[in-house]
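Input (ATP-binding protein):
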Amino acid sequence: MTDREPLARIADALERIAPPPPRPADATAHPAYLWHGEALVAARAFTPLPLDLLQGLEAQKGALHDNLERLARGVAAQDALLWGARGTGKSALVKSIVGALQGEGADIALVEATGRLDTLPALFAAIAPVERAFAVFIDDLGFDGIGEARALRSLLEGGAEARPVNARLIVTANRRHLVPRDIAEQESAINPRDSIDDQLALADRFGLSLGFHAIDQNQYLAIVEGYASRYGLDFDPVEAIGWATRRGSRSGRVAWQYVVDLAGRSGKAL
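Output:
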């Protein structure tokens, strides 16, 4: 018996007990998908908030809706960067607009990509031949190294493995310049010109850039009122303000969390 035979048997046994790779979902059949790096998986439930519940975002709504509507029609559309403060509605807006377009009869699907950036070319290869539009959604983007930023820039700028015409990247981030300062400073010590180019050119590759900013107390209460009215809930503005104060911020996310708590205390489901 050779030394390789026991290792080969072990490898064969591990292969037999390993779960098979997921079967790709039908790319024409579902409103939303997940991409973890191997295959399209149908989202179990896609229930975005109604678009009219997102208060104080009229300019962002209009710009992103128009852009994704063009994508759905098969005409020129932009990759989009949604940047700004946490909890201000960036992710909710992306999902709500895709849902609204589907309600209007547009053939567009959301693909939430959670796999590594270097798996995106495989995703693009899978959806390129499909006669359908895809909003490839990368939520809360962050980088562990400068190489990942350059990989994304390559995808955006139309290289050999750029996204196909029926897909556009929709990215959310907490900062406009996507490369974290500490990584940029490390790179700057080696090559300052490349560091500046990486920070600025990456954001510049998005044809549509939408800023989301912290809201004031009146806007916060308007968001709470919109949610409460939709679900038939009575609320106390003082209590709603206290909820936000204890969490240290006013945002659409905090407003929704308050309404969830209010509904639970009222014995209602959302």
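The chain has ten helices and seven strands.
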